[in-house]
Structures are given as structure tokens and as C-alpha cells.
Design brief:
alpha+beta, Beta-Lactamase
């Protein structure tokens, strides 16, 4: 009985904490600097990978208003759609295919200023104009990729890369 009450109180506290996520306006760097610690606090102590990915994606989407943001998880020989925010997305992507599959294959972040100029780009949404994909690497292996699409050309830069790479190294992915 006592354990149930503690669980309910902790769950309510974490939900209230999520509702209190305060994000400031300002430069892109200032926005990330404000948001990263809040995401860390939101994920702290939660062992469920899917819950953590979903909350991270929601916080980033809320702050930056990108067209699409989500995770693709490596399962066997393909990327499989995970938690995301935005329009309906491609469900499975082969290694080396499109920006996500290429990031997985190369195990490196890819910034694409104009998706129309990326050979083999997979257009899940015709509104997507630029993209950044960050691999989530654990024990030398890519376990997932974080994919972000924008309706603006040349939306992503080294600032996005720095902070998004920092977020995917959080312990929430273990």
C-alpha cells in the first residue's frame, strides 16, 4: 500500500515537472542552453527508453517548432520508426538509404541544407526542405538516429549539431 502511494506521488510530481518545462526565447544557443538542463531533469531516473525518447522529442518540437522530429531505432538490418512528433513518417529505412540510413551507415551526423540536393533523399513529407540526422552510438554501434526536418532551407548548423549530439549522449539511452 505504501509503495503504491509513493509511486503515485512521484508520478504526479514528474507530470507536474513536465508541465512546468519553461523554455526561453532568444538566440538558438540560448534556447538550447535553457532547454538541455530541463530535458536532463525530465529524463532523470526514468529507465524506460521509449518514454525518454518521446519526452525528448516533445520538448524539442515544442521549443523549436520543426516540421518533424523523431527517432528511428536500429532493429536487425533496418531503422524502424520510434517516438516522433509531426506528420506521418516512413516506417522502415534500410542502411545507407536516405539521410537517416546514410547517417546510420557512416555513424556520423549529417546536415542537409537542401534535401532536394541529397542523392536518394526519402521524402516522407513534401514540406521538408532541410534536415539533420544524429546517430545515437553506444558501445561503438549505432542504436538509433535522431532525425529532424524543417520547412526552411538551411535550417540546421553547427549549433544544432553540438546540442543535439549532447542530448543523444544522455544516460536515458542506456
Amino acid at each position: 500500500m505504501y509503495h503504491s502511494r509513493v509511486t503515485i506521488v512521484v508520478s504526479r510530481y514528474l507530470c507536474l515537472m513536465a508541465e512546468d518545462l519553461h523554455i526561453t526565447a532568444g538566440t538558438k544557443t540560448e534556447q538550447y542552453q535553457s532547454l538541455v538542463p530541463q530535458i536532463k531533469a525530465l529524463l532523470e531516473g526514468e529507465p524506460d527508453l521509449i518514454a525518454n525518447l518521446a519526452n525528448m522529442v516533445a520538448a524539442l518540437k515544442e521549443q523549436f517548432g520543426w516540421l518533424w522530429i523523431g527517432f528511428y531505432l536500429v532493429k536487425n538490418d533496418e531503422l524502424v520508426l520510434g517516438p516522433f512528433q509531426g506528420p506521418v513518417a516512413c516506417t522502415r529505412i534500410k542502411k545507407g538509404r536516405g539521410v537517416c540510413g546514410s547517417s546510420w551507415q557512416q555513424a556520423k551526423t549529417l546536415i542537409v541544407p537542401d534535401v532536394e540536393k541529397f542523392p536518394g533523399h526519402i521524402a516522407c513529407s513534401s514540406a521538408s526542405r532541410s534536415e539533420i540526422v544524429i546517430p545515437v552510438i553506444r558501445n561503438g554501434e549505432v542504436m538509433a538516429v535522431l532525425d529532424v526536418d524543417s520547412v526552411e532551407l538551411d535550417q540546421f548548423d553547427a549549433v544544432d549539431q553540438q546540442y543535439l549530439e549532447q542530448l543523444v549522449t544522455l544516460p536515458a539511452f542506456t
